[in-house]
Design a protein that fits this description.
It is a single chain. This protein is α/β, with parallel strands linked by helices and 128 residues long. 39% of the residues lie in helices and 34% in strands. Strands 1-2-3-4-5 form a five-stranded mixed beta sheet, with helices on one face. α2 links the parallel β4 and β5. The longest helix has 27 residues. The radius of gyration is 17 Å and the shape is globular. The relative contact order is 0.13.
Length: 128
């Protein structure tokens, strides 16, 4: 829908990197592109953007907006502790270059193991 979406909040300019609309989900999707590792402060920025979009841009027949923060590096523990998914915010890592095939296979394998462990721990917590 828009690149560098301008929002004026308290007479201050803010610019959301990308704004999309997902037809099947019927909601706005805010995307922030960040250089370097994820920082906890990004959560507050995205929450502000989502609240603005919800109040001023969302149509009555649409669902609440969601946010995606794309970083060159992530901080798994910070992301997990912040529980941003409860606020409709997800974080993903992007690569500027593809690593060698062997390294990529190892990284995918490690991520798969970590995801399974997180799912298991959530399952254990919900069973108690």
């Amino acid at each position: 829908m828009e690149r560098q979406k301008r929002m004026i909040i308290d007479e201050e300019d803010f610019h959301l990197d990308l704004l999309f609309y997902h037809r099947k989900l019927k909601r706005l999707v805010a995307i922030e592109l960040k250089l370097g590792k994820f920082k906890a402060a990004y959560q507050g920025q995205m929450k502000l953007y989502l609240k603005f979009l919800d109040r001023y841009e969302r149509q009555p027949d649409e669902n609440e907006p969601i946010g995606l923060i794309l970083c060159a590096g992530d901080s798994h523990e910070q992301i997990e502790l912040l529980e941003m998914d409860k606020d409709g915010i997800m974080v993903a890592e992007y690569w500027t270059d593809l690593p060698p095939k062997k390294e990529l296979e190892e990284k995918i394998h490690t991520l798969l193991i970590e995801a399974r462990e997180r799912l298991e721990s959530r399952k254990l917590l919900s069973d108690t």
